[in-house]
Specification:
This protein is α+β, with helices and mostly antiparallel strands. It has three domains: 109 residues, no CATH class; 193 residues, Periplasmic binding protein-like II (D-Maltodextrin-Binding Protein, domain 2); 139 residues, D-Maltodextrin-Binding Protein, domain 2, CATH 3.40.190. The protein is built from 13 helices and 15 strands. The strands form two sheets. Strands 6, 7, 8, 9, 10, 11, 12, 13, 14 and 15 form a ten-stranded mixed sheet that branches. Strands 1, 2, 3, 4 and 5 form a five-stranded antiparallel sheet that branches.
Length: 488
């Protein structure tokens, strides 16, 4: 499949097309393609006349640029432009300088027509995986039952309907998560609540927990429903650490009378990890162009325990709109929300996450009618004036394929949170590993490249844990000790 076949354009054309993609879809003149090596080609799924061409390339920075900046186009968008995964891009750092080189392992897509080969942007949609037959339970022991359940859940796609099978699978998933959490506690592990499987939080938790275990801290990555679920389980002592949206952490700590949410005074912050934003996504033809058009539409606003659901409710309330009727609202996770948007069950979806959000990237690659809905400036000013965790931000043009203009929206941070009951030693060790792991884990999960001691206290909306305060004090002392002596 990856043999040096001659299908598709010549290498010189491929190199030129890659340069054009970088200039038009990322930043004009930022990169120069210094070298390009074709590695082979393969048929693309979907159409017989479409092919993938794999390549290695070197890109030279023509000016200084930060691919891990909290604002602006970053590595996630660049990877899509290059047809690469973030792990297939090497040489980037928080502040690349003019002349630095990136090495890339990527893929270009082409379609053949009467005029020859045309570079295409949309990724052909593969055939949806069919549900596998349920796995028969084997063996009399409880561990054998658990392993059979794991195989059943792995082989059957996530279901979000109210069918018999859907309900059974959903409850089995929840039960298995609770069992895993209790077993981790029994074995002396430190549960780290992240998010839904394959989501940004969970992918970070998976990479970090493996790193932490290797360095002597027994962290267990726990897949949860999201920020609200994490905060409640922290307060109840089920988790030791968790990732929360900074706005969710703020409201859980202070309480929210309108939502009958009592304060959770034991929550303590540790660090801000990376910036996040609210995405409101619709499709062309749904007659939604601005925020006010969302009224009387069918909306997916996130699962009940997610931060997305909370943020959506805050924004809706700040707009002064009446609460949507139960018929208008769908409470479901991101994969199900995407499916509902495409099927027409909902007109728009709310998504919170880093920019770019990988699932939305995949959607925009698959179809050319994806549209973002801006958040009104008046809503942003109202919320940022009331809550420390909010600020106005932009989803830059070209972040998602086909996005020709920037979109104003609400920004916040991914916050690392613990409780006052967790020891100072564990908090210090956890933070030390978060900082030290950034370089090593960047190529496993590129968002770790955004973690920096310079931004670790931005947007923190609840009190710091004493162990975190001690960690930052030591860090400051270390930095002062390496400063050059003043020359009088």
């Amino acid at each position: 499949m990856l043999s040096a076949c001659k299908s598709g354009p010549d290498t010189s054309v491929l190199k030129q097309d890659l340069q054009s993609r970088l200039d038009s879809k990322f930043s004009d003149g930022l990169f120069k393609v210094q070298s390009f090596t074709r590695k082979g080609s393969a048929p693309a799924p979907g159409k017989d006349e479409d092919i993938y061409i794999y390549y290695d390339a070197e890109l030279e920075f023509q000016r200084n640029y930060n691919l891990a900046a909290w604002q602006g186009l970053n590595l996630g968008t660049l990877a899509v432009v290059l047809g690469a995964k973030p792990a297939g891009i090497e040489g980037y750092k928080q502040n690349n300088q003019q002349g630095d080189l990136l090495t890339v392992r990527g893929r270009l897509s082409y379609s053949q027509n009467t005029d020859g080969w045309k570079n295409i942007n949309l990724v052909p949609q593969t055939k949806l995986q069919q549900a596998a037959a349920p796995v028969a339970l084997k063996g009399p022991g409880s561990l054998a039952v658990l392993e059979s359940v794991r195989r059943l859940l792995k082989r059957n796609p996530q279901s979000n309907d109210l069918s018999q099978d859907g309900i059974i699978l959903e409850e089995l998933e929840r039960s298995l998560q609770r069992i895993d959490l209790r077993l981790a506690r029994r074995d002396g592990k430190l549960p780290f609540g992240t998010g839904w499987k394959d989501g940004t939080y969970n992918r970070f938790g998976k990479a970090f927990s493996s790193y932490a275990i290797q360095h002597g801290l027994p962290v267990f990555n726990f897949s949860s429903e999201g920020s609200i679920d994490n905060g409640l389980q922290l307060q109840q002592g089920e988790l030791d650490f968790a990732l929360l949206q900074s706005d969710v952490a703020e409201v859980l700590y202070k309480g929210w009378i309108d939502a009958a949410q009592l304060p959770l005074p034991d929550l303590r912050s540790m660090a801000s990890l990376w910036p996040e934003a609210l995405h409101i996504v619709t499709l062309a033809g749904r007659n939604i162009h601005q925020f006010s058009d969302l009224q009387n539409k069918h909306l997916a606003i996130g699962s009940p325990g997610s931060g997305t659901r909370y943020t959506a409710r805050r924004v809706w309330q700040a707009a002064g709109y009446d609460r949507p009727s139960i018929e208008q609202i769908r409470s479901m996770g991101l994969p199900a929300s995407i499916a509902a948007l495409e099927s027409g069950d909902v007109d728009a979806i709310f998504v919170t996450g880093a920019i770019p959000e990988p699932t939305l990237q995949a959607l925009a690659q698959r179809r050319n009618d994806v549209r973002l809905v801006p958040v009104d400036e008046a809503i942003i000013k109202k919320l940022s004036g009331q809550f420390f965790s909010y600020y106005g931000t932009w989803i830059p043009a070209k972040t998602y394929q086909g996005q020709e203009k920037p979109y104003r929206t609400l920004g916040f941070a991914a916050l690392l949170v613990t409780t006052k009951n967790v020891s100072d030693e564990h908090v210090e060790k956890f933070l030390d590993l978060v900082v030290s792991s950034a370089n090593e884990l960047t190529h496993k999960f590129y968002r770790t490249g955004f973690i920096s001691t310079e931004t670790s206290r931005l947007g923190i909306s609840i009190p710091l844990h004493p162990g975190a305060e001690r960690f930052y004090e030591k860090l400051s002392q270390q930095q002062d000790s390496v400063q050059p002596a003043r020359q009088d």
